[in-house]
Amino acid sequence: MKPCIIIDSNIPFIKGVLDHVAEVRYLNGSDISAESVKHADALIIRTRTRCNEALLKGSSVKYIATATIGFDHIDTDYCRQHNIAWTNAPGCNAGSVQQYIAAALCYLHGQGTINLPAATVGIVGMGHVGKLVASFCESIGVKVLLNDPPRQRAEKGNDFVSLQNIMKQCDIITFHTPLNKNGEDKTLHLANDRFFASLQQKPIIINAARGEICDTQALKKAHKKELISGIILDCWEQEPNIDMELLNICDIATPHIAGYSADGKANATTACVQYISRCFNLGLNNWQVQNIPCPENTFIDSQKKNNLNPFDELVNAILYTYHIETDSAKLKNTPQQFEFFRNNYPLRREFSSYTINKGKWDEEVLKQFKTLGFQIVDGLENIRN
Length: 385
Fold this sequence. Notes:
The chain is an alpha/beta fold. It has 15 helices and 14 strands. It has helices at about 35, 55, 75-80, 95-110, 130-140, 150-155, 165-170, 195, 215-225, 245-250, 260-280, 310-320, 325-335, 340-345, 365-370, and strands at about 5-10, 25, 40-45, 65, 85, 120-125, 145, 170-175, 205, 230-235, 250-255, 300, 355, 375. Strands 7-6-8-9-10-11 form a six-stranded parallel sheet, sandwiched between helices. Strands 2-1-3-4-5 form a five-stranded parallel sheet. A three-stranded parallel sheet has the order 12-13-14, covered by helices on one side. Strand 10, helix 10 (about 245-250) and strand 11 (about 250-255) form a beta-alpha-beta unit. The longest helix has 19 residues, at about 260-280. The chain is globular and about 65 Å long.
């Protein structure tokens, strides 16, 4: 008998993949209910589906795959107690979030809000995403301070600093932690009134991790008191019913799409299909998303005709790959469409889909491009879009 699998209909690249080996039903994530999963054997979901007792009690669900890095929407204790196996997709969209952070910082640099080469960036959380954000910052010569208490305890090295040092020294602070509601490494409202009161450099605050890491009220008060100089938010408390006052004071505000590159989505879908295949022996253990669409023009030429310095050429190239201000403007203009923007996100490809003509750039800039994953070719004849 074929297994019955409920799949969030907004997960890309998955429709039709499992239909010949399973009984598949596609539902909007918010419509996946206790009734709909009652006779399901497995779920493939996103963050909008809360996998807890209210959803799973009395069901036949034995396997859950979430096409996300985070898994705080899954009640892991309940699953363990009821023999429900689950998996997330760790690292699937790390490159996408790196691109988001890079574009956000480059955009503010271009607007004159920050002087990026002179900034000190504090990265809180050094998992898959934090590592790539650090790699971007280091590749362009920006000073980086790293904070990750669990890793610091485990590795006993000198690569990390305390959160207090981050609060004292950094011009930009970006959060990339999981959401831990309790325990020694609690991150729920990590950025609270006490955190903001301890800041010394009036930093720009970035949250592209989980909305609940930043206390909304504390963040608004910090902005009003000029304890911070800017806000970049992709994740919000009470999504999709976000705080309008907070939205209006953000420099960049996006609808939880930092990890929504086509590459990141493809990685997550691949991980979920392979996991479910292994669970039910469906013969798709090595299946991968193929033929991801590309933008119309993935070739980036040098802008020397505009007399830009090498750093600003790099900035412009990064912004060419992702117009982050467009996503921000859409949300600010029509915040009631938060979920629509998430579910209908346009094509965005990561740095590795873009090609640089080697002969047109300074060697140091080419090295930076290579570190970020851009394709480097020598001559137009070698460019393949």
